[in-house]
Amino acid sequence: xxxxxxxxxxxxxxxxxxxxxxxxxxxxxxxxxxxxxxxxxxxxxxxxxxxxxxxxxxxxxxxxxxxxxxxxxxxxxxxxxxxxxxxxxxxx
Length: 92
What we know:
Layout: E1 9-13, H1 18-29, E2 33-38, H2 41-51, E3 55-59, H3 65-73
Parallel strand pairs: 1-2, 2-3
């Protein structure tokens, strides 16, 4: 599957387990650099060790505006600023 993500920077919240983790794995497999976050630092560290160099995890509470801004500004991940974009919805 080619999602056109090769070389793109992507942020996934809740990326240390469950559906979020599956999304991170898919995006990394598609060639994206994925910054993922979750509330628990332990889960983030474990996931990052398993996901490899194109995934960077950090503990972020997405209900905390300061922490989210730090993630967006590149203060907590190695690939610089992240420009937010909303993915288009598909209704069938």
